[in-house]
Amino acid sequence: MTAEKTTMAFGWRLYGLGVMALGALCLAWGTFDTGQPVPRNFPDRTALAYAVAVFMLAAGAAVEWRRTVAWGAAALSVYYAVVVVILLNGRVLLAHYTQYGTYEGIAEQLAITAGGLLVYAANARIDAALAARLTRVAQLMFGVCALIFGGAHFVYMNLTAPLVPKWLPPSQEFWACATGLGHIAAGVAILTGVRARLAAILLTAMYASFTLLVHGPMLLANPSSHWIWSENAVNIALIGVAWLVADSLALTRR
After folding, report:
1. Residue ranges per domain, the chain?
2. Is 29 helix (H, G, I), strand (E, B) or coil?
3. Per-residue pLDDT tens for 28-86?
4. pTM for the predicted model, two decimal places
5. CA–CA separation, 64 vs 59, rounded Å?
6. Minimal CA–CA distance to 17: which of 248, 244, 252, 251?
7. What value does the CA radius of gyration of the chain take, rounded to a whole number of Å?
8. 226-253 vs 128-155: helix axis angle to the nearest 10?
9. What is the mean pLDDT of residues 227-236?
10. How far is CA 210 from the centre of its chain?
């Protein structure tokens, strides 16, 4: 493994861990992840949920192992892009295209797709030019997702601000706005290539702080909530994706 891939390995293993956590939650609850809106009346829904959970666990585990990392990343990229983003969330988009939350939900799943593409491009035995194109597509996808995440902080300020710990000065609203602006600034930087790697590094640190300050405490307060467990798992995956974007941008500059 080259020094560059060794650096990226930290990101892709966090990414794989996040996906495995999502799969484990699906097994534990016997239902689909909250970001995969399968209709309640879908035939054999529970059996399909277990099958998808096993797939996510297997693909996430494959990402953790050097010999299977490209296969695992390819499987996750296709599943999330075609099934989760287009088929499942596409149906939701058609029904609720006026609601900003619909786009935020799609952005979460699209960011996970971008992570799979980055891992695949870095590890698959494919043409260097194709790998570079896939990497750039994934970077742009993540940049768009960051913009949407940032916008959600302002559209849903009444929901975002209460998530900030009350003891954190100067106020909950300040940090809700600051992190929203941080997402937007990072998205613009990644899309334009201006200070893009610094932006991705700061996003990685911000997502890590969310685990410590927001999602972790929420889980301790309400450990029976599937949604909170899922938010923790998604955030772990996003830390990995942001890390991958930062490292891929460093490689692109070289």
Report:
1. 3-253
2. helix
3. 999 999 999 999 999 999 999 999 999 999 999 999 998 999 999 999 999 999 999 99
4. 0.94
5. 9
6. 244
7. 18
8. 130
9. 95
10. 13
